[in-house]
Amino acid sequence: xxxxxxxxxxxxxxxxxxxxxxxxxxxxxxxxxxxxxxxxxxxxxxxxxxxxxxxxxxxxxxxxxxxxxxxxxxxxxxxxxxxxxxxxxxxxxxxxxxxxxxxxxxxxxxxxxxxxxxxxxxxxxxxxxxxxxxxxxxxxxxxxxxxxxxxxxxxxxxxxxxxxxxxxxxxxxxxxxxxxxxxxxxxxxxxxxxxxxxxxxxxxxxxxxxxxxxxxxxxxxxxxxxxxxxxxxxxxxxxxxxxxxxxxxxxxxxxxxxxxxxxxxxxxxxxxxxxxxxxxxxxxxxxxxxxxxxxxxxxxxxxxxxxxxxxxxxxxxxxxxxxxxxxxxxxxxxxxxxxxxxxxxxxxxxxxxxxx
Amino acid sequence: xxxxxxxxxxxxxxxxxxxxxxxxxxxxxxxxxxxxxxxxxxxxxxxxxxxxxxxxxxxxxxxxxxxxxxxxxxxxxxxxxxxxxxxxxxxxxxxxxxxxxxxxxxxxxxxxxxxxxxxxxxxxxxxxxxxxxxxxxxxxxxxxxxxxxxxxxxxxxxxxxxxxxxxxxxxxxxxxxxxxxxxxxxxxxxxxxxxxxxxxxxxxxxxxxxxxxxxxxxxxxxxxxxxxxxxxxxxxxxxxxxxxxxxxxxxxxxxxxxxxxxxxxxxxxxxxxxxxxxxxxxxx
Lengths: 356, 284
Ligand SMILES: Nc1ncnc2c1ncn2[C@@H]1O[C@H](COP(=O)(O)OP(=O)(O)OP(=O)(O)O)[C@@H](O)[C@H]1O
Ligand SMILES: [Mg+2]
Description:
Distance between the termini of chain B: 31 Å
Structural class of chain B: mainly alpha
Shape of chain A: elongated
Low-confidence stretches of chain A: 312-356
Number of domains of chain B: 1
Low-confidence stretches of chain B: 1-19
Radius of gyration of chain A: 22 Å
Structural class of chain A: alpha/beta
Oligomer: heterodimer
Helix content of chain B: over 70%
Bound molecules: adenosine-5'-triphosphate, magnesium ion
Helix content of chain A: 25-40%
């Protein structure tokens, strides 16, 4: 099996004491999407910056299509495209001018650049805005142009650092479709994301990164299988009741249930049978559920089960960003806000204030 | 290796990776510089207000010194014609000094901004020549300096400067200023690459510029300054340039002063360019 991207024990320390990467290793098969998943400050961006030759590692090595990212940096730059975490575009240039600039700096001829810019503007639905300065673009349009700029030179290996952050659901699924199309054509994609749903949908393999280490790696299915086959969500009147219910229901779960706000999440093996048992137990203890739902486990649950820390959901559209304050104590579940389909508790202690 | 949508000549995309000869390396490096220069010039065109206001300050200085402070300055010199040196003629070199030194702040702020927005981050992951980011920025800013110099020349003529040494000597003075300006821009690049953000870049630039511009013969003759200060004033780069170009523009011995100016310019290039390149490489 040939790998398009290899990270071997990459280490990076900032300013003497911030250990951003503490020996990160993973390998990405050619022509697949690999998801790098982790909370804020996990080291995802740092890993991407090292693999795209922007930053030199303190230890370990990275390779892109077999070429070392340090000793063969110039060659590697010809093989990669990067859409960084901040849309790295010039707000005073038009969409077309931005694409042209990046194309020329990729050493493409004027004719090829002009043609590629036209193609990409079309592909990303930016034809109407092509000749407007980017500062007149919406956040989503800017983001799309940023991804388009990473594709100008048709790189065989693409790095996308949170490509859909800030996009509406429609634009997000556009970008997803685009990524799937690229992979269909043989491109290798390394994707970092705060949206667990995104990694779940796109990535062949996923590495969960926390505090500069890979804490889990595998296919989304493998990661989910670690947990149990089904998750049973039981909503209760308030957080205190939920804590009590969690104790009562613990015997039905394959591992310790987690309490998120006023919701108890039970990983179970046999969904329908567990559901009957749970209802019986609730009834016996005079607890009445406000929400009762069986669902597939998400990578969100996986993250919770591996780190013992919750992820924090900050968007309104159901996707799930990983966002764990580093200072948060282990197992402090109450910081997680329920997502779209879950009941949002008005007394949620985090009051919607997000760190980012 | 290529995309599903790939319809165009793959060879075109692959050609850069087939080990470029040194000739084509140079060609592409120049193309990179041109691309970045163009990008910065487009920005000037899109922000005409910024361009306009970059001339407003020097224009105000012309008016201020010509009509407010100028009357209080006692000049000793004479013109080649033998007439007493009018203040407006004395002022011209100072105005060029002021326009060029303050004009460079844009370089520092612009680079700091590009670092902040992540644009330079993208440049670093591209197969472009790394020095092109700095070269393209400084060249574009030099073009802006040319524009400001032209405006200030017109302004000078408007308030009574009449080119007493003739057009050729005046052009020589302008040329000297522009070469100096380009060297100075690399110093501003160092500031921009060292500042943590664009506001800081501006804050760092001012205290360096002020003593250079005002402890100089830009607006007042040196002989009224205390002796210890005169040593600094007449030997610091801006002071030397002002004396040299003033001699070119209104008369007086030029050879030694122009020589000293060129020495400063060469020295500044030799020191500032490597520091800027080093800062660019180190900054992450
Ligand atoms: N240039 C830098 N100087 C100092 N510390 C840094 C620098 N870049 C990153 N760090 C630190 O390294 C750690 C990892 O940061 P990184 O940006 O890689 O995280 P991330 O996983 O991308 O987070 P996010 O999801 O917020 O983008 C953080 O603690 C961060 O503060
Ligand atoms: Mg990041």
